[in-house]
Amino acid sequence: DGGITQSPKYLFRKEGQNVTLSCEQNLNHDAMYWYRQDPGQGLRLIYYSQIVNDFQKGDIAEGYSVSREKKESFPLTVTSAQKNPTAFYLCASSPQGGETQYFGPGTRLLVL
Amino acid sequence: SQQGEEDPQALSIQEGENATMNCSYKTSINNLQWYRQNSGRGLVHLILIRSNEREKHSGRLRVTLDTSKKSSSLLITASRAADTASYFCAPSSYDKVIFGPGTSLSVIP
Q1: Do A45 and B93 touch (CB under 8 A)?
Q2: Contacts with A94 from chain B: Cβ below 8 Å
Q3: Which tens digit of pLDDT belongs to each residue from B4-60?
Q4: Nearest to A92 by CA among B86, B76, B37, B9
Q5: N or C: less crowded end of chain A, CB within 10 Å?
Q6: pLDDT at A103 over 80
Q7: B42 and A105 in contact by Cβ < 8 A?
Q8: B25 with B65: CB under 8 angstroms?
């Protein structure tokens, strides 16, 4: 089946800890995105990548890092510098930048 | 900002009625997209309308785009309880899509 997957579904972070959220797609899409969604809010863009080995900061990149070593994978690391990481994180991909996006099921990050 | 702003923020209607949501944006766009999100889930793409199109239909959905007014509308006809969700407009440039805060639609059986 083609699609986009995220893991884990729930993730718990301790104070001062870095955690990495996984995002994988087998749709052969060039572009991939990470969004943060807070309760009752819209999506805010964290990072996006239009091609392998290249990525750009979105509106709220501080405290986050990404890599794009493979076309299929775009992991997001929430670093200890992100002081308020509790949120719902959504990954998406699209054939090219600015086109229809296909979303994963999301990862809910909670701070212990 | 390219971000879309949906109006109203919340909408409650009876099953069978039509639901209309509006979106305004500020910059030029390549296309405008509408998405739906059920609670706690990822977003699902509904429809994409390009900047040179004025109206598009998909099943019970009708989308209009007025680039001179920088606005779009999403009409859901004959609503069902299953249409209860949040709806987002997403104006798009060549490299990214920016989501608005959304309209929360409740369809009462």
Answers
A1: no
A2: 97
A3: 788 899 999 999 999 999 999 998 999 999 999 999 899 999 999 999 999 999 999
A4: B37
A5: N
A6: yes
A7: yes
A8: no
